[in-house]
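Inputs:
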Amino acid sequence: MTVITLAIDGRSVQVESGATILDAARKLGIDVPTLCHRPGYAANTSCMACVVRVNGQNRLLPACATPAGQGMIVESESPQVRLSRKIALELLLADHAGDCQAPCTNVCPAHMDIPSMIRHIEAGRMRDAIVTIKDKIALPAVLGRICPELCEKGCRRGLKDQPVSICQLKRHAADVDLASPEPYLPSCLPDSGKKIAVIGAGPAGLAAAWYLAQQGHACVLIDQHPLAGGNLRYAIDRALLPEAVLDAEINLIRKLGVQFQPGQRVGQDISLPDLRRQFDAVLIAVGAIDATGAALLGIELLGNGLKIDKQTMMTSLPGVFATGAALTPYRHAIRAVGAGRLAADAITSFLAGRPIALEYSPFSVRLGVLDIGEKTTFLAGSTDDARVASFPAGLSSDQAITESARCLSCDCGKLQECSLRRWASAYGAEPGHYRMPRRPFHRTDGPRIPCVSAPAQDADETVVYESGKCIACGMCVQITAKAREPLGLSFIGRGFQVRIAGALDAPLTESLRKVAQECVSACPTGALALRKH
Amino acid sequence: MSRMRTQPLGSQESDGPSSAPPVDLAFVDDAVQRLGNRPEALIPILQSIQAHYRYLPRQALERLSHLAQIDPATISGVATFYAGFRHRPAGKHTVRVCHGTACHVKGIERVEDSLRRHLQLEGEQDTDTHGTFTVERVGCLGCCTLAPVVQVDNVTYGHRTPEGIVYALKDFLAMENQRARAAAQVAVNGGGLLTKLRNIFAGPEPSAAENLPEIRIGCGSCCVAGGADSVRLALEQAIRNSKAAARVTAVGCSGMCHQTPLVEIAGANGGVNPTYAKVSAIEATDIVRRHFKSNGFFGRLRTAASQALDHITGQADAVALQRHSIDVRDGPVCGFLGPQIRIATEDSGAYDPLDLDAYIAHHGFAASRQCAEELEPADVIDMVLESGLRGRGGAGFPTGQKWSRVRSAVSEDGTKYVICNGDEGDPGAFMDRMLLESFPFRVMEGMIIAAYAVGAAEAIFYIRHEYPLAVRRIRQAIELCNQRGILGPDALGDGQPLAMRIVEGAGAFVCGEETALIASIEGRRGQPRLKPPYPADRGLWDKPTCINNVETYSLTPWIIRRGPAAFAAIGTANSKGTKVFALTGKIRRGGLIEVPMGVSIRQIVDDIGGGVADGRRFKAVQIGGPSGGCIPAELADLPVDFESLSQAGAIMGSGGLVVLDDRDCMVDIARYFLRFTQAESCGKCSFCRMGTKALLDILDRLCQGKGKPSDLKELEQLSSAVKSGSICGLGQTAPNPVLTTLRYFHDEYEAHLKGHCPAGKCKGLIRYLVTDQCFGCTRCAQVCPVNAIPLLPYQKHTIDDHLCTRCDMCRTSCPVDAIEVV
């Protein structure tokens, strides 16, 4: 076997003859985006997200299909190549019609994965439900009582009757957890040796501390009041939010090792410069602030809040961050909780010496408004139960299950695995860059196949094909052909109109008899996905 | 093809007027029996099924999947890839509306609008409720000098207007009735007219007496579309009636397509051959009478009598006949023919294209014989290399190098192929059609030479299905050559065989790309693949394959016969020899021309073409079709060769040359080509599939006055991404029309941003106004198809802008030019 030596981005690499540029790049650890490539199959050269420039030519070549050549000079991460890849991804996104995150998640200021939470509740997996919630919301029992239900404004179930009672379900899951013998405590990373002062023990500060502690940082909450909770304790009607609930959730945060220093006002009792000397980072989460407060801290004011760099949440003082209502006044605690988590991310990156890349809202393509026909398809198979009216007492377990079943699971079945989403997010591709009329929403059920990964009670999953999400890469066509499916999948039409469908108009249940599982896992988007029962 | 967004499932369901009629599937069994059950038979089988049922019934495809060794996914994939295949029942007749460049600039869109209105077709509907006509859009019918053109079944109607299209349909149905009556008569009389008609479509009758003077009539597709068939019938009838000592010969294209039907009298008057242009059937008798004496007393008597009668009824109009008489020494004809050098089109219009003896008498097959008898394959390749010949298909790759690579490529079992790329799809180009129709033997001879040089035993013509006459002629030419042993077991000498066959395309422009063409021959979707490997190394069935364009093959016999130096003496430093162009658009004398490389655009437009028609201003030439670009009039002195054109942002392409005048909007032209490439993209790679769509969307917005200033920058950025990132030539060149118009006509883009179309073309940016010239003749009100003009006799008319569809019919019908576009 001949050995070929080539250079990618100035680094030399050796591969055996027959290897592609992609193989060589991966050997160097260069992460080249690919959507339509699968080992063991011929290159589809369809997505063109893997283009590289070879020997300075104008033409770009797909790395997945171009054999590595002796002495080749390849550019993979140059600005021109990256721009072309971004354009390729944006072109694919322009005709990719579907929701990544469910509309409720998009609307939720904390971007909690609501459909997953609901599916867990429906299946009785209350621990999984609280884990999902607390991944994004540190104080769900509290918010379950005072949240303005913003997420429900996005709920597609409203197209049929009324939105799912998301807020009550979240409260239910949190209440069940708090009432359990051992409420959920996330595991924390080993001690990082870093110390962080969080000024203000309101919703933003508490949330930040919750997430910072999980990262292994030693966290001290400093507050002028005798008790933690900030506005949640001192500005909210007790009838709405009993103190016991607030105490219970704060207690969990303290159980993670977060220290509380009550009765200290920064600027009077301790100075910010002192804190900066004693701690590796300082987070200001003091709530709404005025000029006097800002002057006390010695931080510039911009508009109605402290001035920060939006990309990093850092103030002009290195290592001093600010979050929550200290930046811009708002009415809803859920926003503060979301902002607290973001600040924790920023500080963690900062302490690790990584560049701070804040994800204010996760990458998500949106399907948008549905027309009448699409609504019918979308609502097909949904239960007819009416929304359970919210009770001050909260939902019973039976009510929670009935209510959960009303959820339409609008999120993408491949939310976490989707290659298009992963690379679009990594390359900063904008879904709306090229405006085109949206492809119609269309969903068909394929065969039911045994579940391979999830718990045993989900014995079956259904293959679901959402044609709007298909990027016509042809992987599934190759897989069904290679497996000699009696019917298989085929390209239908050509050019911009090209679609994937069952051969000879066969339904998906007929077309995918042998390799449904492989097609689903090979599909780079959520076009072919699984739905649990 | 359908502009509808295909529904993902159930897309092949029939929703035509008669949904899913019961189908007798015996034909499918028969087709598989005849054509084979291997994957490569798939496209011919589908074509045969479609010809039989007029669409592809799903049951037929299911039956096929049971009978043939072809998997259902391939059947579905192929059946929906090619635009030639329908999945819904079609009407009794098909109306093909040509959307070639020449037709576009001459207003085919308005003709189509009118046609659809007449047939009352709504939205995506393509067949009228009676099931009589199905309307299809085609890329280009290759009758560009007759633009705008529609074809009803096999009958071509040129120079259509929004009103004229309605007449064409009526005429077609009237003819249809006549044919039906004639057929009924034949059934009774046992032959006659129908046989005659069949002969016309099958080719010329065997020539009778050898030494008789000839009346030559051009019978290329353009000529036939111009009415050459009926003229020919009339001439034959006139000779029979007068018993004149003459014979009629249907000859190939002379290139003077603007003059069709063209009749030449040869061998009667010695030196000069009188020629008549734009002849009609009525004039046939006069022509015969003028040049040939009747034989026999009764004949003369009858002639005299009928002359007298004609005189009385006023049918014979000597003046009218004089009007059509042209002399090749006349200025215009001299201008048209003057700068031309004929190599690929040598002896044009001199003999019947299928007269093998005539071809041989004109040095035909001398070069291929010379190769087989005197030259080694390496010598042949050296000669082609020395001649400097570069491929005429578009990219201009040196032919000799390609042949040499195929020759040296390793094939385990020794199999190599020669393919002739006759999938000429560029709108505005019809050179290859003309060469195939008029010089079938020459193209074949070029392929024989190539087969000898590279060591192939099989040569394949790939011809697009829109060229039925070309397919028929090549088929007959192959048969004739097989009979004579020019092809067959000893075709290449020393017992080396060469077989030739035809594969017909099924309606996919992208199959002009060589790897897509090969996929199509193999019975797959015509999707290009990444090169290398090149077909020279791994082509048809993974064997080394020599694939060249029609014109390239046509040039090689001359090169061998006259020597490479003679060829290299013509042209410029890097572009040798001649190039055939289809000269169309806003030009006085359109047609097919063959000129030496290096002549200037101005020479072509002014000297050969006689300048821009109708006193308009010459604005630009679009050269190279969808892959080419627009060269502005300011650069008209640019020499036409590979390098100069590519520096100017265009390409030689296959040779379409469409002249544009000041009434042509350059943003619209860019949009026109993008619409074409977007519809013809195979859909494989993202840059082409989505990129051309995104470009088209921006251009659509600009033409509707909805553009944003950032759009121009976006057009440039996206164009360069599509150019550099696409897999094949289609995507890599698709942005050229956008880039050249942006480069040379930036001001027009700017104007569109401000909501103004300087050429008055973009429907969304213009209005129709009645000026004070109007004297109330009511003609506009009568022709308006949407009643946007109230009928006001003797008063100035007005146009309701909300109702107006910009069909242009009022303007063209106004006798005093009182309607203005603003």
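The CA atoms of residues 208 and 247 of chain B lie 8 Å apart. Flag for discussion at group meeting.
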